[in-house]
Specification:
mainly alpha, about 50% helix, four-stranded parallel beta sheet, 4 strands
């Protein structure tokens, strides 16, 4: 981790901002060794957890009221009613240099509220390759939703950070070498979801909920079968016939409203996209065979299905 800018930021607080006392809380102790070796002109570094609060208060306000101090704590900032140094803290400066704060600056994000969100995705950014590719996509004003979509684009190696491109890449993995094996999809999706749990969200749900905004009924548990493949078959018939017969109701897009519309639009774009139409045909034919759609709908003509909702 590059800590040079931490030294520069601390120096600015004491020199440019003329601060006398700076608090630094590092509950995980990520910078303990760095602080012990830190040298700032005219500034005394105090490992505050090794000094009693009353002793520290006497030093700062009575014994050396003009000295400059960096107070480093390997503990979280206390609640105000439990803070013996609250009156000093109110006129001092609190410095943030946790891992998420450093990453926030490295990514160029300007919203400090994103620090917690980044912390939850620490494993994703542990890879230098993923970090480099993510930095190319991230914009200063990105918030949680935009950031997660871009991280998904990195994970799936999508060309652009859009829902269409990410889903296309995910679906494309179902038919390697032009051979679709839907029975193997749950294990493959489980590995993909595992990446989501490790890199994006502790419980893995956000990875799949972002997809279910486009594909209705996407499972929260990625190991629960090939649900998205089923939805593909459902929506394919919906987009091809304008609806489904009563008997074919099980094959219609589940749920109404915007989600079903999004799914239909996504499938229509996928089917008509020059670069992906062959991929669509492979997967939709495989899903059709798996669901035995011809067996269930073979007795109906196009006219019989045309006006069915």
């Amino acid at each position: 981790m590059n800590t040079s800018h931490i030294t520069e930021s601390l120096a600015d607080l004491f020199q440019a901002e003329d601060r006398r006392i700076v608090f630094w809380h590092d509950p995980d102790g990520e910078f303990a060794d760095f602080v012990r070796a830190l040298g700032l002109d005219g500034v005394q570094v105090i490992l505050a957890d090794e000094v009693g609060s009353l002793e520290l208060k006497v030093l700062l306000e009575l014994e050396a009221p003009l000295g400059r101090y960096l107070l480093y704590f390997r503990s979280p900032e206390p609640e105000p009613d439990q803070d013996w140094l609250l009156d000093i803290r109110l006129y001092a400066k609190t410095f943030h240099a946790d891992w998420a704060s450093i990453l926030l600056g490295e990514l160029g994000l300007i919203n400090q509220s994103m620090r917690g969100h980044l912390q939850e995705r620490k494993s994703f950014f542990s890879s230098k390759d993923r970090l480099v590719r993510a930095k190319k996509l991230i914009a200063p004003h990105d918030r949680e939703a935009e950031l997660d979509l871009k991280l998904l684009a990195v994970l799936t190696r999508a060309e652009h950070p859009g829902s269409f491109e990410v889903l296309i890449r995910l679906f494309g993995q179902m038919c390697p070498d032009r051979k679709c094996n839907l029975k193997a999809v749950p294990a493959q999706r489980h590995r993909q979801a595992r990446a989501g749990r490790i890199f994006l969200e502790p419980n893995g749900h956000r990875l799949w909920l972002s997809g279910s905004a486009t594909i209705p009924g996407g499972p929260a548990d990625p190991a629960a079968g090939y649900g998205h493949g089923q939805r593909l078959g459902q929506v394919r018939r919906r987009s091809n016939t304008g609806g489904a017969a009563r008997r074919a109701g099980a094959f219609s897009a589940s749920g109404a409203g915007q989600k079903a519309t999004n799914a239909s639009v996504f499938v229509a774009q996928w089917r008509s996209h020059m670069a992906y139409t062959a991929q669509f045909s492979l997967l939709s034919d495989a899903v059709g065979r798996e669901l035995e759609i011809e067996k269930h709908l073979g007795g109906y003509g196009h006219e019989a299905l045309a006006d069915v909702n």
